[in-house]
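[recover] target loaded
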């Protein structure tokens, strides 16, 4: 036995080994052939390859490979063909070993075939909901590999404030994900805080960073989600409504104080008073004062004075008519 070639082919093609004898013979020569996984990044026979074939006439005819092959008299070579599988797995160059010997060889002669990958490095992307109901509790984000990898893939993730604030609207979250060989999907969650304040839509984002064994797909490494509490995305509806109006009584000459209570407090910049605690102003009517605080509005009508003309910010109150006293 003189030599065994070391061919290379892109996966999906045929890995053709040429086995050469040192001399031609006047009688058929028996050659022992052994196909095995290579020593470096070994290919998995039967997964990365299909059944091997052999030709003793220069490739005109092919038959299934057997452990021994008879080379015709006068011939000095044979071909061993290993069809490779075109998969969708990102993997390093894999190897297949072919050893050959005749009765005259004390040690088999070997060659190494290389299967070149055509899938390239996989890419990572992240998806998640655009809108989250505040009462959801948690929100799940999905990180996807474009195709499986033969080696582990890792990537870091983390949240960042938008108009939503970590610690009060959601819980700041960070960590890393590991994709085992062959895996393509991993998830993580971000806790969302459910309060009784009406805040309107507030957003935060989560992003991927520092990948190993993959790259982050352009434009697909971050996603923004908005937390809503107006009932549009689920059961949570914190929009304030009038919950109750008290029914006070007072001896004439005193102050008749009505308390109007809202179902929820306002906590949105468009609705906040300059003083978020409590304010007091004159209504412009003798004997009337309006006091307000979070979730509470109080109107004072002093008997004998005029009715107020407003019952709250932006709401008009039409008096039922002149107050009558002493009737």
């Amino acid at each position: 036995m003189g030599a065994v070639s070391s061919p290379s082919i892109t996966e999906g093609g045929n890995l053709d080994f040429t086995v050469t004898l040192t001399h031609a013979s006047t009688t058929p020569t028996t050659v022992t052939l052994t196909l095995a996984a290579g020593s470096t990044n070994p290919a998995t026979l039967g997964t990365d390859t299909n059944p091997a074939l052999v030709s003793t006439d220069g490739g005109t005819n092919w038959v299934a490979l057997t452990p021994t092959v008879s080379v015709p008299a006068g011939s000095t070579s044979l071909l061993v063909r290993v069809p490779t599988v075109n998969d969708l797995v990102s993997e390093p160059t894999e190897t297949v070993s072919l050893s050959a010997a005749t009765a005259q060889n004390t040690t088999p002669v070997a060659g190494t075939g290389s299967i070149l990958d055509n899938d390239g490095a996989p890419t990572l992307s992240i998806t998640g909901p655009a809108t989250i109901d505040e009462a959801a509790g948690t929100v799940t984000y999905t990180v996807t590999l474009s195709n499986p990898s033969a080696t582990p893939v890792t990537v870091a993730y983390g949240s960042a404030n938008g108009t939503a604030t970590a610690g009060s609207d959601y819980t700041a979250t960070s960590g890393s994900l590991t994709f085992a060989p062959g895996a393509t999907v991993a998830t993580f969650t971000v806790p969302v805080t459910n309060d009784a304040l009406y805040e309107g839509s507030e957003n935060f984002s989560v992003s991927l960073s520092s990948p190993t064994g993959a790259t982050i797909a352009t434009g697909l490494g971050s996603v923004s989600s908005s937390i809503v509490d107006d009932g549009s995305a689920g059961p949570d509806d914190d929009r304030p409504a009038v919950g109750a109006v008290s029914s006070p009584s007072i001896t004439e000459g005193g102050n008749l104080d009505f308390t109007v209570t809202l179902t929820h407090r306002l906590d949105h910049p468009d609705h906040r008073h300059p003083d978020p605690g409590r304010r007091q102003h004159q209504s412009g009517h003798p004997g009337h004062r309006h006091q307000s605080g979070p979730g509470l509005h109080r109107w004072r009508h002093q008997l004998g004075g005029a009715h107020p003309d407003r019952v709250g910010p932006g709401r008009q109150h039409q008096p039922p008519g002149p107050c009558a006293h002493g009737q």
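[recover] notes: Residues 3 and 20 are 5 Å apart (CA to CA).
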